[in-house]
Design brief:
alpha+beta; Alpha-Beta Plaits; 5 domains; 25 strands
Length: 757
């Protein structure tokens, strides 16, 4: 079971909360809201700023509680994305501007001026012997000025949430420092803490803005073509007003606002926002286009095929939003650990103050040097207890990886799948639609009149293809579409007019009349029975059939003209992707297919899998996945998401290829383009994310341990402890955000068309 709440849709409310600088802010809000009457459960995600509440508590009470805790809140309308703007402040890309736009940091900057005399004469140059009550008074004023927001937050946490958060610890430490006479220390702690919180808030907001950038990809308006008084007029409408079947106009250079099908026009479209493909994709009448793609040089008239809330970019945004709310096992462990960590340090701090004074008679407070007493060390340990860096070390890395993946056409459904993908030891691939294109293509054709060597095209062969295309363009089966497509690629589709009188010979082929000539296209067995053909062609057809190809023989007025062979061809990217996986250390690559062993082996040799399991029914694929799991451990299953759902569910990580709704719904990870090239990228990204998490956690604990030892030894100070925590929070955040810029995968190989033989 994943970590998100199983919430009844009728009682779920979602809110967007603003003003959270760190994960501890989120914890205070969650605890405070959970204490409201009629709240059955609630969960807040710091990164997405989303609060989910389950229960009968009115929205007004929830809003009032969050505002009482000192944060902004807006309710998210049902069906809307959490990242859609409510009271969302503009993103500040300059830290100084961010600082001066906040009331608490404005006071902290003013407090810094009051703090300077004490910092100069008490901390930096104590040997000068300069002291004055005014210096101490200025330091106390600086502590109160900078700490006013911290102390208010501490009071709210104690009164409302009944929780010892970091603001409580800092307030106790600063007030205790004033009581024992360490005035400058108290002020430095508060100023550094407020500036550090602002710095964390700034970096967190930058991370959120990179995630929200996905939402900016979706245009808000579209040009709708509306018939009126016998003419077509152009109306600028909101995309939410468009219905399936409406027609829209997309001008050159504009972003395509809706999923649809091209009705007229031709252009080269940049699909990188959806699929991550770097090259332009040619679109013409009949081609599908995706919302947020960027149109090229030609105008397109498009028929809308999905509503705004159901189009590809909306589904992507919804998945990324939901992914942020699914915690990985490592993140859940860190959250649980931090719950015990802070109280444990508080107990240790109390023991540090009491044991040396009670057992060994050492001074609790040293009147001559306030920083030398054991109470000062205990107060400093409270500052060390701040778990900000530890708590934020995991989610920022995982969310950065999820965001990077989404921008490059790889959708993770949650942090748990990022973590699991990093652990896989073997990968099972479905063949049809995954390693192969999933639809037949013409791979060979040869005219009976061709005298050229194999693999060399001639006019007779092209004429054969054109003749077959004239008949097949009136048919709808996959082999017909393959013939028509190949004729268009070869530029011969207009040599003959479309056939008339087309009739299907059930199980045998199709006939039609082209330019007064009777054309028949049928199977080898049909021609064996009815139309003579050369023995050498018959031998060639037998060899082609043995490779698993589908063959079509063509006759003109009952005279044999030649043959066309079609097959489900291997994707150009498959071999390159599998070779890259092997370079990454994944050598157990298994192909699962329902084809016979001979046909399967041909594809296996071409793509480079290490093992092949043929004659697999859907239930056999599930058994195969479980067998591979028992043999290798964690295993990923890659399929097209349509008929592979059971096997995808049985694997450690189910990976679907293609941007269909079925693919996005059935898998843990979705590769948005029809290519396997994003797969090595996704695995490298997940491995990098987990390495970053481990480094962040280890470094956070190490720094805290070092400061802890220094404090016990009497050489650590309060300002050193808070500076170390602020620095670590910033470092782990920036280290996690590096994943946003991790390079994508190489460009797609050029498609290969079938050659004549």
């Amino acid at each position: 079971m994943n970590d998100t709440l199983a919430i009844n849709e009728t009682t779920e409310r979602r809110f967007r909360v603003t003003g959270m600088d760190c994960a501890n802010c989120a914890a205070s809000i969650q605890t405070g809201v959970a204490r409201l009457a009629d709240v059955d459960a609630c969960e807040i995600n710091f990164t997405s700023e989303t609060l989910r509440v389950n229960g009968a508590a009115p929205a007004a009470a929830i809003v009032a509680r969050v505002e009482e805790l000192g944060y902004g809140i807006d309710e998210i309308e049902p069906g809307a994305q959490a990242g859609q703007p409510g009271r969302q402040p503009p993103v500040q890309h300059n830290f100084l501007h961010y600082m001066t736009s906040r009331r608490d940091t404005q006071l902290a900057l003013l407090a810094t001026l009051l703090l300077l005399p004490g910092l100069l004469f008490d901390e930096l140059l104590p040997g000068l012997g300069v002291s004055s009550p005014l210096i101490n008074l200025a330091s106390v004023a600086a502590m109160l000025l900078a700490g006013s927001s911290v102390m208010r937050n501490a009071w709210r946490s104690l009164r409302i949430a009944r929780q010892l958060n970091i603001s409580v610890l800092m307030s106790i430490a600063a007030i205790g420092a004033v009581i024992i006479g360490a005035y400058t220390e108290a002020a430095v702690v508060m100023v550094l803490f407020v500036i550090g919180e602002a710095l964390e808030g700034f970096t967190a907001e930058r991370a959120r803005s990179s995630i929200r950038s996905l939402m900016s990809l979706q245009p808000a308006e579209a040009i709708c073509l509306v018939p009126e008084d016998g003419r077509i007029i152009e109306l600028l409408v909101n995309v939410s007003a468009l219905n399936v079947g409406d027609r829209i106009l997309v001008k050159p250079g504009e972003r395509i606002p809706m999923d649809g099908r091209v009705v007229s026009g031709a252009s080269a479209v940049n699909q990188a926002p959806i699929t991550g493909e770097s090259r332009l994709i040619d679109k013409q009448a009949g081609a599908e286009v995706f919302a947020s793609s960027i149109n090229g040089e030609g105008a397109l008239e498009i028929e809308v095929t999905h509503l705004a809330e159901d189009n590809t970019i909306s589904r992507m945004i919804r998945m990324v939003e939901e992914a942020q709310e699914q915690r990985a096992p490592t993140q859940r462990f860190i959250d649980r650990f931090s719950q015990y960590y802070t109280p444990a340090v508080i107990v240790i701090a109390a023991l540090v103050a009491l044991i040396p004074t009670v057992v060994y008679g050492l001074p609790l407070v040293d009147a001559a040097d306030p920083t030398a007493g054991w109470l000062y060390r205990a107060l400093t340990l409270l500052v060390v207890a701040c778990p900000c860096a530890l708590v934020i070390s995991t989610p920022v890395a995982l969310v950065s990886a999820i965001s990077n993946g989404a921008r490059n056409g790889v959708l993770f459904k949650g942090g748990v799948h990022v973590e699991n993908l990093a652990k896989i030891k073997a990968i099972a691939f479905d063949k049809t639609g995954t390693l192969t294109n999933g639809a037949p293509s013409v791979v060979a054709y040869r005219s009976v009149d061709c005298i050229l060597p194999d693999q060399v095209a001639c006019d007779h062969c092209d004429d054969l293809l054109a003749l077959a295309s004239a008949v097949e363009r009136r048919a709808e089966h996959p082999l017909a579409r393959a013939v028509v497509h190949e004729a268009a690629v070869r530029g011969v589709s207009d040599l003959y007019p479309a056939a008339s009188g087309v009739a299907t010979l059930t199980g045998r082929g199709v006939t039609g009349e082209v330019s007064g000539q009777r054309i028949a296209i049928g199977s080898h067995s049909f021609f064996d029975q009815s139309i003579p053909h050369p023995s050498e062609h018959c031998d060639a057809l037998t060899a082609v059939d043995a490779q698993g190809y589908s063959t079509m023989l063509v006759s003109r007025n009952d005279s044999y003209q030649g043959y066309i062979a079609a097959a489900d061809t291997v994707r150009p990217s498959s071999r390159a992707a599998l070779a890259e996986l092997k370079r990454m250390g994944l050598h157990h690559l298994v192909m699962l297919t329902g084809d016979n062993a001979a046909t399967a082996q041909i594809v296996a040799d071409e793509v480079g899998v290490s093992e092949t399991l043929a004659n697999c029914l859907p239930e056999d694929k599930v058994d195969a996945v479980r067998t591979l799991q028992a043999r290798y451990g964690e295993i990923a299953m890659v399929g097209d998401g349509i008929n592979d759902a059971p096997a995808l569910a049985a694997s450690t990580v189910g990976i679907a290829i293609g941007n269909t709704a079925q693919a996005m719904e059935t898998a843990d990870v979705t590769l948005m383009r029809d290519s396997l090239l994003p797969l090595p990228f996704a695995i490298r990204l997940s491995r990098a994310a987990m390495r970053t998490v481990k480094v962040n956690v280890a470094f956070s604990l190490l720094v805290k341990f070092v400061v802890f030892v220094l404090v016990l030894a009497g050489t650590g100070t309060m300002w050193m402890a808070v500076l170390a925590d602020v620095g670590m929070s910033l470092l782990v955040t920036l280290n996690g955000m590096r994943l946003l810029r991790r390079p994508a995968f190489p460009a797609e190989p050029e498609s290969m068309h079938g050659a004549t033989t």
